[in-house]
Design brief:
Blueprint lengths: L1 E4 L6 H10 L3 E3 L2 E3 L4 E4 L10 H13 L3 E3 L3 H9 L16 H13 L2 H11 L5 E4 L2 E4 L5 H11 L7 H8 L6 H9 L2 E3 L6 E2 L5 E2 L1 E3 L11 H4 L13 H4 L12 E3 L16 E3 L1 E2 L6 E7 L10 E3 L2
Parallel strand pairs: 1-4, 4-5, 7-12, 12-13
Antiparallel strand pairs: 1-15, 2-3, 6-7, 8-11, 9-10, 14-15, 15-16
Helix pairs in contact: 1-2, 6-8
Length: 305
């Protein structure tokens, strides 16, 4: 059975405390459990004070089969930040703007050049999703069409090459929309005049959606994956026609990414759970202890306060 752990963002002390609470212990420097494995949901780097230590713990567990993992958008962003833009010397797939440099700054400060190079090479080997017997895991959003398109490309020789990475990171390229959906979540444009402030203080006129719910009857505010937006305008037809809710009979899917703020974790739907409770923004590290149940239960969350 699996313990699914959300976004860590360089908080290794919290990670070791959570692993201890879950019954994992180190052997030869690597955490493991006699009967269980971890599934990590990505976002190991950026923001926190112990990025190198976090990578060592996670990678050690993955490489000894004590854990599985998926890629987060911060791993994708890191690869893009250090991959040159095709045919434009000195430019990168993720531009070196002040905003992007600030977001990636702790990783740059804490890892040596060789450590960073090694981490980036490892990130290229990480799957973007897992479909296992009885459950699914993805960083932000499960979408069969998007996953199918990405899978077709990644099955080509070379895997996540610079060319494929460019297709995933550059607007207008074939993989961009699909990778954005599964690693960053689906978005909708807000009605004219509406906006909200995100966790980093940026004003947004688009918001991530509660893609796992049927959209009928929702307003922009109730369908938004944020509690920072007040908008009672009913969803527009262009939003409704693009919604493909996650079926209630589908196997459970576990997510990170969404910086949830509730004091007590709870499932998003009967078969959908997010385990990102904002450890890098004053929240706590969270896991879900899964034992095969197809209807998820709130009492199965394990977390540190």
């Amino acid at each position: 059975m699996f313990d699914i752990i959300g976004d860590i963002h360089g908080h290794a002390d919290e990670l070791t405390a959570l692993l201890n609470k879950l019954g994992y212990s180190p052997r030869d420097g690597v955490y493991g459990h006699p009967d269980r494995r971890v599934i990590f949901l990505g976002d190991f780097v950026d923001r926190g004070p112990e990025i190198r230590e976090t990578l060592e713990i996670v990678r050690g567990m993955v490489e000894t089969d004590a854990a599985l993992t998926v890629m987060g958008n911060h791993e994708l962003n890191a690869m893009a930040f250090h991959t040159a833009y095709p045919d434009q010397p000195g430019e990168y797939l993720r531009p070196h703007t002040a905003k992007n440099e600030k977001q990636h700054g702790q990783t740059l400060a804490q890892l040596s050049e060789s450590q960073l190079s090694d981490a980036l090479a490892w990130f290229r080997t990480l799957p973007m999703w897992l479909e296992l017997d009885g459950l699914r895991a993805v960083h932000a959003c499960w979408d069969d069409a998007a996953i199918g398109q990405i899978e077709n490309q990644l099955q080509q020789p070379g895997g996540l090459t610079d060319q494929v990475l460019a297709s995933a990171c550059l607007p207008g390229e074939p993989l961009f929309a699909s990778v954005e959906a599964i690693l960053k979540g689906k978005e909708m444009q807000l009605p004219t005049g509406y906006s909200f402030q995100d966790k980093d203080g940026h004003q947004r006129t688009k918001t991530r959606t509660r893609w796992f719910l049927a959209a009928d009857g929702h307003t922009f505010g109730s369908y938004a994956m944020t509690d920072q937006l007040t908008c009672d305008v009913p969803l527009s037809e262009d939003v409704l026609v693009t919604c493909r809710p996650y079926g209630a009979s589908e196997r459970p899917v576990f997510l990170g990414h969404y910086w949830l703020k509730e004091a007590t974790p709870r499932r998003l739907a009967r078969n959908v759970a997010c385990v990102d409770y904002s450890v890098a923004k004053g929240g706590f590290l969270c896991a879900y202890r899964w034992d095969g149940e197809q209807e998820l239960r709130n009492e199965k969350f394990v977390y540190l306060k």
